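hey so i finally got around to running the thing on that chain from the lab meeting. sorry it took forever, my laptop kept dying and i had to restart like 3 times. anyway pasting the input first so we r on the same page abt which one it is
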Amino acid sequence: ERSINAHGELQNWKNIKQLSFDKETTLFLEDGSVELKTDQFQLFQFGEKLFGKIEWENNGNDIQITYENNKISKKINDSIITTEEELKKAENSFWAAHYVVCKPFDLIADHIQLILAEDIEIEGKSHYQIQVKYDGDTVDSDSWSYIIDKETFKVVANKVVLTDHTSWVENLTYDSSSDLLFNAHRKSYRLNEKGEKTYLRAEYFYSNYNIEK
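ok and heres what got predicted. didnt touch it at all, straight out
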């Protein structure tokens, strides 16, 4: 609750009818070279029914993922994608984007269990570590932990344990252009079995936040 308040308070989040922003993503290979760079426009409309879309350009093609009426669709230019594999990837991409933008505001819910784990030290400073468990989680489900500054109560990092690797995502700067505090600059590192950073996997920049209430 303190972290939610530090990020702008729950009621301000609930008042949002539409949220949009730009997201620049750069993926890096282990040798430091760039694997992929994308510039996306993301939009979410909240209410009785969620609506959302993600748009970007890749190799001269305009790509759009849309979630409407509880259904995912994908278009490349004017072509509608119908293959099950591609639609599943589109669905995963949409829900991953939705998951990130809603944090930490939707972490208090009946279907979520929050566990206060052992403190984590970052640059000599102790931080809270909150593990998140969801109803229906299995051994293969992603496991998220939120690292919270003990003084400001901002979410400063995430630890994400997946089936094939573990990521450490640092929130470096925040966007304070509205009455809510959103991500502005993040870096994601791969961790080894000892929990040590091995290489920078991704860098994210968020900008041009627009809120309609």
